[in-house]
Design goal:
The protein is 18% helix and 48% strand. It contains two helices and ten strands. The protein has an eight-stranded antiparallel barrel.
Length: 165
């Protein structure tokens, strides 16, 4: 009887020791539950865009300027492209945030007397505006240009921040 008692005490002690040294693993959260402190810190480190942003680029004698207003996930603004000694393009931007810093926009403008729209993907990173450049196509032949293959488009146009007037 004493053997059984000591054996059960020994097993209980082993279980206690094992449970105290067991690695704590995060438990998956059900939808709608509170976030952990680590999740909140990570999300807090990601900047959330809101307000007015202005950008400018001068290359040779060509200029590009962009003004964006971001509220919630809605984005509106203007984009002006002025090549040296040629007709430029001035139009409006409208769309939405598709991530914390990336936007999918519709650029509505008139060029050489023709009304056109063009899909634009832009992102703000380290206070600069990056515009995705890629081959465009007009599949409906209606003046609405879209990326032929968005996965092949790259962020190659960079505009620097300027003060919004």
């Amino acid at each position: 009887m004493k053997k059984a008692f000591f054996l059960s005490v020994f097993l209980c002690m082993m279980l206690i020791i094992f449970s105290c040294t067991k690695e704590n693993k995060p438990v998956p959260q059900a939808a709608g539950t509170a976030k952990t402190a680590d999740q909140q810190k990570t999300e807090a480190a990601i900047p959330v865009l809101k307000g007015d942003y202005c950008f400018f680029k001068a290359e040779s004698k060509d200029t590009t300027s962009v003004h964006l207003t971001i509220h919630s996930n809605k984005v509106e603004g203007e984009m002006n492209w002025q090549p040296w000694e040629k007709d430029g393009v001035t139009g409006t931007l409208s769309g939405k945030l598709i991530s914390n810093n990336e936007m999918e926009l519709l650029y509505d403008y008139t060029i050489e007397g023709s009304k056109q729209t063009e899909t634009k993907i832009m992102k703000i990173d380290h206070d600069r505006l990056y515009i995705k450049i890629g081959e465009l196509t007009d599949p409906q032949n209606d003046g609405h240009l879209i990326y032929k293959d968005p996965s092949k488009a790259v962020y190659s146009e960079v505009l620097n921040p300027v003060s919004c007037l």
